[in-house]
Amino acid sequence: MNCNEATPLVAAYADGEVDGLRAHSLRKHLAGCATCAAKHQAVLDLRAKLRAEVPYYPAPAALRDRVRSALTATDASAEAQRRSAGDRWRWLATGALGGCAATVLAWVVGTAVVDWRASEDLAAEAVTAHVRATLGTHLTEVASSDQHAVKPWLSARLDFSPPVRDLASEGFTLTGGRRDYLGGQPVAVLVYRYHEHVIDVFVRPQQARAAAPALRSIRGFNVARATGSAMDWVAVSDVSPDVLSGLVERLARDQAADSDARSLMRPQPTERPPGQ
Amino acid sequence: MLPHLDAGYNLARWLTRDAHDAEDVVQDACVRAMQYVNALRGGDAKAWFLTIVRHACYDWFKRNRPPEIAADDGAAIESAADGEALSPEQIAVRASEVRALGDALAALPLPYREVLVLRELEELSYKEIARIADIPIGTVMSRLARARALLQRSPLLQAIDGQSSGGER
Question: What is the reported pTM?
C-alpha cells in the first residue's frame, strides 16, 4: 500500500472502521511511512484531548426525575393499550365478513368504530398534551385562582368563551389556564389542583353527538368526558376516575344550571362556605 | 430512554450550546419518544433516541434560531468557520481558560459539530452516525475529516498548543 491508497483510510482506521486485509496492509504502511503515521497520530491525539478536556454534559437530575415519572405512567398501560388496539381491528374484520344483512350491520358497527376511534384519539391526544404540559414549564399561561381573571384571558385568545369556575371549596383549586390544541383545533385548558394532583380540563365548543365513553384510562392517566353548557369537557389527570368524572360532570352540569341562582341548593349537597 | 438520557442531553447541549435550551429539547424528544416507542423494534435504542433528540434539536432551531441551519452547502459552512477569526487578545484570553478546546468545538458549524460529538464523545460507529444524521456514510467520513481539520487549525487550539506541547506538526 502506498500513501495515495493509505491517506483516505487513515482517519477511518483510527476510528476502528477498517478491518481485515486492508487494516493489515495499512498497519504495515504506517509502520514505514512517517507522514501517514503522523496523520494517524494526529487523529488519536485530538481524540484523547477531546475526551480529556471537553466537558461531557450529563442530564440534570431534575430533568431525569421528570422523565422518569412520566415514563412510569406510560409503561404501566402500554401493554393494555396494545391489546385494545388489536381488539379494535378484530372488530372491524368481523364486520367485513358476512352476507347482505351483515353489510348493513357492518356499516353500523363500522361507523360506531370510527366514532369510537375518533373519540379515543381525542382522549389520547389530551393525555399527550397533559404530559407535555406537566413535563414542561408552561403548564399555565395565565396563573390565577380568580375565575374572573382566567376567563377573560382565555376569551381574548380563543374564538369562544369557555365557562370558568373555581371549585376550591370542593377541593379543586383553580391554578390558571392555557391554550392548547385538540384535534387540530385551539382549545381552552383550565388547570386545577386537587391535593397534589394536577388536573387539566380541556374545553371546546360542543361537537357532533356526544357518544364518547365517559371514562377511559390511557397510559396510566384517567380521561373523563362530559358534554354540557354547549361545550365538550375533557379532564385528564392521575387522580382516581370517580373524582375526575365527578369534577367534569359537575363542570358541565353546573355551568348549564348556573345562571344567577348560585346560592340555591344544587342537586349535590355540599356545604359551601358563604361568599364563594 | 432513561439509560440514554445523558447521551441525549449531551448531544442537545453541544448542538444548542445552552443548558436551558438543551433541557427543553430533550424534554420535547422524550415526549416524542413516548409516542413512537412502538417504532423501536429490536434496533439500537441509543441511536434511536439520539435520532429523535437530533430531530427535536433541528425543529427547535427552525423555531428559535433559523440562521444556524440555513446554510448547508459546503462553501457557506466553510466561510462561516473561517469567519470565526479572533483577535490575538481574544485568543490569549480564551486560551487561558481550560475550556479552550470546548470553545473550539462549540465554534464549529453545526453539521461538523454534530458528527464529531457523535464520534468522539458518544463513540458511535460511522453507520450509527449516518443513521442519526440522515446522511450517507461517505458524507460522515468527509464531514469528520473536515471537522478534525477545522479543529486542529482552530486559532483557539493553536494558541493552546503553542503554550504547552509545541503543536502537532
Answer: 0.51
